[in-house]
Design a protein that fits this description.
338 residues, alpha+beta, L-amino peptidase D-ALA esterase/amidase, six-stranded mixed β-sheet, 6 helices, 20 strands
Length: 338
């Protein structure tokens, strides 16, 4: 019988690929728990970004500011491997270049590929991390089918609930969700690798996160800290949740940035605590403009936060435990429910 300590949430379904013109591809390493995920639109898309965590690892985020020149991007990369994982974007650029995609600059086209990374170097051999070949393979695998969720792509080595160390943490992963209202679709994909717990926004109960010392029950990170149980500080830069929201609405670059900002509301609803000193929490937003419906920004921002929170829950529900040398090193939600 499933344990009541680890609830069964019922988040939204759907996927970011429900947004017309969006494709997603994963690369999952077979050498250790790490990987990368690439969002590849069929055509260049208006994009924005918002960084809230204090330990970000990012690429081409300044370019996305509304005051800067380039209006559209050709792909977005989410990767494990900490700062080393930024190299995956080089492989995505190579794939895009081979397919004739890029920002025209005279005789050449330069693919615009922003990206962000999370820290997953504690699991297995830290010398193995996503590289340019990994990014190329992820881009080449991109499809408009619903992407696989859980311990794949950028979520392969993701973990959550790490304030008391990895021995009491649980498995994170990658998740996706979408919603359609009045002819406009908003979807999200997110790799959840938080210091904090993942909680059900409706009940506030921990879905996956730090466990008690016996490993059997949720610790409740924020509640424990408020009660005075404050663990020793983590090493800087050991977490980070990274994601992307997409819509088929026609948006300007400032509107895309506002959509990215609003999607962080999903982080705040489903991760507790979110945006910590040790997280580099980052969200990209892209707009394909394929819908003929007139966008209502209040509605779109509410949808973005909602689908992001659902994607976060799906990431940990779909995750599987990490096994290194035949040992369950980090358990997943399904292990605790058994």
């Amino acid at each position: 019988m499933a344990r009541d300590d680890w609830p069964l949430p019922q988040p939204l379904g759907g996927a970011i690929t429900d947004v017309a013109g969006i494709r997603v591809g994963h690369f999952t390493s077979t050498r250790r728990p790490t990987g990368c995920t690439v969002i590849v639109p069929d055509e260049p898309v208006v994009a924005g970004v918002d960084v809230r965590g204090s330990a970000p690892g990012t690429r081409e985020t300044d370019l996305l500011l509304p005051v800067n020149l380039v209006e559209q991007v050709h792909a977005v990369v989410l990767s494990g491997g900490s700062a080393f994982g930024l190299d995956a974007a080089s492989g995505v650029m190579r794939w895009l270049d081979e397919h004739g995609r890029g920002f025209p600059v005279g005789a050449a086209r330069v693919p615009i590929v922003p990206g962000a990374v999370l820290f997953d170097l504690d699991l297995g051999d830290h010398r193995v991390r996503p590289d340019a070949d990994a990014g190329y393979q992820a881009a080449d695998a991109a499809s408009d089918a619903p992407p696989e969720e859980g311990s794949v792509g950028a979520g392969t080595g993701a973990t959550v609930g790490k304030l008391w160390g990895m021995d009491r943490a649980m498995k994170g992963g990658i998740g996706t969700a979408s919603a359609t209202v009045k002819g406009i679709t908003v979807g999200a994909i997110v790799a959840v690798n938080a210091v904090g717990d993942v909680v059900d926004p409706r009940s506030g109960r921990v879905v996956a996160g730090a466990r008690t010392a016996d490993g059997l029950r949720p610790q409740g990170t924020t509640a424990s800290m408020l009660a005075g149980e404050i663990p020793e500080a983590l090493r800087p830069g050991t977490a980070t949740t990274i994601g992307c929201v997409a819509t088929d609405a026609r948006l300007t670059k400032p509107q895309a940035q506002k959509l990215a900002q609003s999607a962080h509301g999903g982080y705040s609803r489903a991760i507790d605590p979110a945006h910590t000193l040790y997280d580099g929490d980052t969200i990209f937003a892209v707009a394909t403009g394929r819908s003929d419906a007139v966008p209502n920004m209040i509605l779109l921002t509410a949808m973005a936060a909602t689908v992001m929170a659902a994607a976060i829950m799906r990431a940990v529900i779909k995750a599987t435990r990490v096994e290194i040398d035949g040992r369950a090193h980090v358990p997943a939600w399904g292990d605790m429910r058994a």
